[in-house]
Specification:
The chain is mainly alpha-helical. 61% of the residues lie in helices and 0% in strands. The protein contains 21 helices and no strands. It is globular and about 80 Å long.
Length: 452
């Protein structure tokens, strides 16, 4: 599709050199997760055993029924009302399957081990393969090595799983997608800098609250490396198993995520930097200090869209818009319920305090807003779509025509093709052999009902 001479991109650029190709952010982010779960031997072993556990339990309805009964017993012993879950299948085409499968096993870990032991004692004597498979799964899921790797990926999925879902949303734009990727890099780098002590603490707490006795980490066997003539360096193997996990698994997973994010989302960097100047945070910063506008601002986007954007006019209109941005935004009607709005990631603490001061005349309860309460923050105004709607509601298209054209370009840049692919999946489910005589109008109506 991306060949230099006969690919689809080259054919489109022959007709329109200003066409910008952007990969589906959700697909690329899924590839980052895929590389992370296969970056080390411990990660491959864990997710391979999770897939084997799914195949082992769900190949028989009797085994699945035993697992459900053990879940009910576990809930009654803990006085909890957890919903009964099934072991999730791991698939590279089902995004989030790795996280879902791991969460089910960790949530009902005791029930999983008891189920495997029951199957081994009941079916093992008559079928040696079943007994051996159950024993192997029991040994792995009862090991401290599994706990460490599971707690590591639980932290990783806590960072990447919400971003993966947000990138699949139909109202995501190129600006918010870029910000989400940037936040993922920072969160992963913070996870790497905190070290393995946090992971070990979580594994110890899990083992303490579990009824299963976990096997300790085994020290790796020392390998004797012969020294060549004249070689003065001394090989220092990792004798401590925790250090071995930190070097060969913990750092490898974090570095893989960071490097893959930089590699897969590093193109079109200049264009994305120009678009980032349209965020609410940047507009406020430039409005307070016009000298913060970079010298090469909007050069890349104007060079791509030369027929629509003039650089000098765009800079002039941008400067005028940022000076009046807060006044224009204040004319937007505020919602009736302030506490039900979402957190704005673009605001910092000083901007929140200033916003609280501006609103305390209309809202008497703003003084009691908790800083840690996510639901008490204003709605995110950093997306291009929200700013474009503000631009249109204030009828500024005639006042700033060049800036208006830039907003129109930004909101039409694609971020994800998930909605299109879901429509193809729905079409395959609807247009079956039994419905071969369906008219196009009815098929279209059924597609709208299923997709929307």
């Amino acid at each position: 599709m991306s060949g230099n001479y006969k690919g689809l991109q080259s054919r489109i650029r022959e007709l329109n050199p200003q066409a910008v190709f952007i990969w589906c952010h959700a697909h690329r982010f899924n590839l980052v997760v895929k590389d992370a779960v296969s970056s080390s031997c411990n990660a491959v072993d864990m997710f391979g055993n999770l897939e084997s556990l799914y195949a082992f339990l769900w190949c028989s309805k009797k085994r699945a029924a035993i697992f459900r009964v053990n879940q009910l017993k576990s809930n009654s012993e803990k006085n909890e009302k957890n919903q009964i879950h099934a072991i999730q299948r791991i698939s590279t085409t089902r995004w989030g399957s790795h996280s879902a499968s791991l969460n089910v096993v960790l949530k009902f870990h005791d029930a999983v081990i008891i189920t495997l032991k029951t199957i081994r004692s009941s079916e093992g004597p008559s079928d040696a393969r079943v007994g051996a498979a159950a024993s192997g799964l029991i040994d792995y899921f009862s090991s401290y090595r599994f706990l460490l790797v599971a707690m590591l990926f639980q932290k990783v999925f806590f960072i990447v799983a919400p971003i993966n879902k947000q990138l699949q949303a139909h109202d995501s734009d190129i600006l918010i997608a870029t910000q989400l990727i940037k936040n993922t890099k920072l969160d992963t780098d913070n996870l790497r800098s905190r070290g393995v002590a946090e992971i070990k603490r979580a594994a110890d707490d899990f083992a303490k609250n579990s009824k299963i006795e976990f096997e300790d980490l085994k020290a790796p066997r020392k390998k004797r490396v012969p020294r060549n003539a004249g070689e003065k360096c001394i090989d220092e193997p990792l004798d401590n198993p925790l250090d071995n996990f930190k070097v060969n698994t913990y750092y490898v997973v974090c570095d893989t995520i960071i490097s893959e994010l930089c590699q897969r989302f590093g193109d079109s960097d200049g264009l994305l930097k120009d678009i980032s100047l349209l965020s609410s945070k940047r507009l406020r910063e430039v409005g307070k200090n016009p000298n913060l506008i970079p010298n090469d601002a909007f050069i890349e986007v104007c060079s791509v869209y030369t027929n629509y954007l003039d650089h000098s006019l765009l800079i002039e209109e941008y400067q005028q818009f940022v000076r009046n941005y807060e006044e224009i935004e204040s004319t937007r009607q505020l919602p009736k319920t302030f506490r039900s709005l979402d957190l704005c990631n673009e605001y910092n603490d000083d901007e929140f305090s200033q916003l609280d001061l501006n609103l305390e005349d209309e809202y008497e309860d703003t003084e009691n807003i908790n800083q840690d309460d996510v639901s008490s923050k204003p709605k995110n105004m950093a997306t291009v779509l929200e700013l474009f709607q503000l631009f249109c509601s204030a009828n500024l298209n005639a006042v700033f025509p060049t800036l208006y054209m830039l907003f129109k370009i930004c909101v039409t840049l694609p971020v994800s093709s998930c909605s299109v692919e879901r429509s193809f999946s729905k079409l395959k489910l609807l247009k079956t052999k039994l419905r071969s005589t369906m008219l196009e109008s009815r098929l279209e109506h059924l597609m709208i009902i299923n997709c929307e």
